[in-house]
Amino acid sequence: MDQVTVGDAVREVLPSQRDAEFVLMSLRPDDTLAIALRKLQGLKISGAPVLEDHSARSLRSARMVDLMDLALAIVESAGRPEVFNTPVRLIAGSAKEGGAAGLPFIYNDAPFVEGVRALKQSRARRLLVLDQATDAPLALLSQSSVVSWALRHIKHLPADLMAKPVSQLECGSRVVTVKRDEPMPDALRRFVGEDKSGVAVVDDRGRVVANLSLADLRCLTPENAAELLRLNVGAFLSATQELPKDPVTCRPSATLTEALHLLHSHRVYVTDEQGLPVGVFSTTDAVANLCP
């Protein structure tokens, strides 16, 4: 990857992205849970940094708050109306992204490969991109952006790496499953306990029949969240998806190139001949394998 990205700076990669996550939207510490839900839904993104202002001091203590944090706060309050008035500064963010050390960040003039390495080493889902001259936040560089970049440059990447079957790749992600009749509150707690952004929904035989991810929570509003989060997983997906979405799957023999093309859903479930999950290839795994 070094030979391809040596001339690419982070700032040269970001403008080509069309994903809404690359439009930096931050939350204020005093924004309420209701305001945060509306902001995230409006941009169709799953999380945002909480910033007092755009100063370097604020960035050092910033953290991410995502839809999982907001949904879990609603669940733990049993959906009481007053929870929607809770300031986001009181809602715990992801343990991996932010906190005392602040958000992982990179400067816009840094080589793109450094951003990929930072994502791999921190296992964060996104980095804050700062202006080299002013320290002002410009955008978010996510794992998905690395996948998009790799797909645009795939012919320049090592052929032997891209031809490797998924079964031989470095995959640290473990399959976490939930049943369709499992209550959403229990499923959300599983997300947090396993530190996942998506889980496989399986039938009574253990076959993957759907995917429940952070993106599925983008439908939540202050008006519908409490009711939707009382449903079981199957009913939640039926109520929030206009058309049923089949899970994205591949066989263990699929190549890295094939797996990358399937990663539009952020994870690909690796299944055997019976449809049983034997592994999962996520955007985290993609970054780990693309980075030297």
From TrEMBL:
Annotated Pfam families: CBS (PF00571)
Residue ranges of domain CBS in the record: 171-227
Q: Which Gene3D superfamilies match?
A: CBS-domain
What CDD domains does the annotation carry? Answer: CBS_pair_SF (cd02205)
Q: Does the keyword Disulfide bond apply?
A: no
Q: Which InterPro entries match?
A: AMPK_gamma/SDS23_families (IPR050511), CBS_dom (IPR000644), CBS_dom_sf (IPR046342)
- The domain of life is Eukaryota
Q: Which UniProt keywords apply?
A: CBS domain, Repeat
Protein name, as recorded: CBS domain containing protein
| Organism name | Acanthamoeba castellanii (strain ATCC 30010 / Neff)
